[in-house]
Amino acid sequence: xxxxxxxxxxxxxxxxxxxxxxxxxxxxxxxxxxxxxxxxxxxxxxxxxxxxxxxxxxxxxxxxxxxxxxxxxxxxxxxxxxxxxxxxxxxxxxxxxxxxxxxxxxxxxxxxxxxxxxxxxxxxxxxxxxxxxxxxxxxxxxxxxxxxxxxxxxxxxxxxx
Length: 161
Known about the structure:
alpha/beta, 2,3-Dihydroxybiphenyl 1,2-Dioxygenase, domain 1, 4-stranded mixed beta sheet, 3 helices, globular
């Protein structure tokens, strides 16, 4: 397809996911420590008219970092963690509102990863469960939260029984 009204936009490819944090440094350190994310310099420090116009956030100013997600090489996607100088989520669209639904990490052992997350300031959400997918594969998974309350899915896939 060429990106007309019935197909994808020309040149579209995944770039990054953004997370607005209350404290970007602490949260970035947590993702580096627990999941092996890698900081991609430089630290970002933006403010000014163009940022205000682009975000629709009055007096917008933010700082943060991109973290390369593990398992995808040096050109893989990033998790962008920023903190707005005023993170109250009051803008019309909420570009400065903290959070997202969840980010998922494949891990070797869901139970061990869950224990580590809880030991490092995360919180539990529900229980660890294993289910069989329609194609016969088994997935063991659970939700936890990072220290700021954002949902993280831990999952481990196994071939069909």
